[in-house]
Amino acid sequence: MNRFTAYVGENTLPKLTSSLLALLVICISQTGCNLGQQYNNVSGRQAFELGQYSTAINEFQKALTKNPNNPDALYNLGASLYAQGKQAKNSQWLDQAEQLYRQAIAANDQHVDAHRGLAGLLIETGREKYAFDLVNQWKARYPGSTEPIVELARLYQEYGDNRRATDLLADALKIDSNNVRALKAMGHVREVQGQTHLALDNYLRVLQINNQDTTVAQRVATLQTQLASLPASNNANPSQTNNPSRYGAVDPYLKR
């Protein structure tokens, strides 16, 4: 079972709508191939969200025929093959997904989702050391970026080293105190450790930056309810909290 999870509120991309697809169809007739690629990515993502992986794969392959080096299309196709490979227990599809993730990174070395997807796949296939190496090397290439630090913190937290995860996230927040992903990640780690007040502070900070994040708003409401129900003597330093939802290795969303 995969242990690589998403932090609270990471699945924040909006659902696709028929009106958005219709708008893209109109745009394609006016501007051609670039939006044609985008249409294939959008319609493929819609199919992916419905669990129609074969249809999604077909759409992403169409996008790649128009631009073989499109990192989002490479990532999307990899994620779809990953999902289908896990469902069918087909190692060949998982191998293809791994190669596509690597191609997406080669096309865009700062592609966050491709790094996350590849790390999840490496863990899923029993190569934890390579997952850590992947993210550590990414971090070394971009020492001023918060993204690899957050992903590295995720790895440490998943393998039980909450102290190391907290230290890494503190480093990320020193680089960018308003980084929403780092704040969500810190809230998650603190919540897992039972530090409800501190987790709540992090989540409230997220809502100050983006008050439309409904998943974080739900966590805030849950934690506030928990704190209100505790006896006054325990409220200052609660010892337990309900863990936030965990997600599987399959990428929770695709790139448009």
Account of the 3D structure:
By secondary structure, this protein is mostly helical. The chain has helices at 18-31, 33-49, 53-66, 71-88, 91-107, 112-124, 128-141, 147-158, 162-175, 180-192, 196-209, 214-229, 232-235. The model is unreliable at 11-33 and 238-253 (pLDDT under 50). 44% of the residues are buried. It has 13 helices and no strands. It has one domain: Serine Threonine Protein Phosphatase 5, Tetratricopeptide repeat, CATH 1.25.40.
From the 3D coordinates, which CATH architecture would you assign? Alpha Horseshoe
What is the makeup of the main sheet? none
Let me know the CATH homologous superfamily: Tetratricopeptide repeat domain
What fraction, in percent, of the residue positions are helical?
A: over 70%
Tell me the number of structural domains.
1
Supply the helix-strand structural class.
mainly alpha
Shape: globular
| Radius of gyration, in angstroms, nearest whole number | 20 Å
Give the beta-strand count.
0
Distance between the termini: 28 Å
Following the backbone from N to C, one meets helices and strands in this order, namely: HHHHHHHHHHHHH
- Reading off the top of the CATH hierarchy, the class is best stated as Mainly Alpha
As residue ranges, the low-confidence spans are 11-33, 238-253
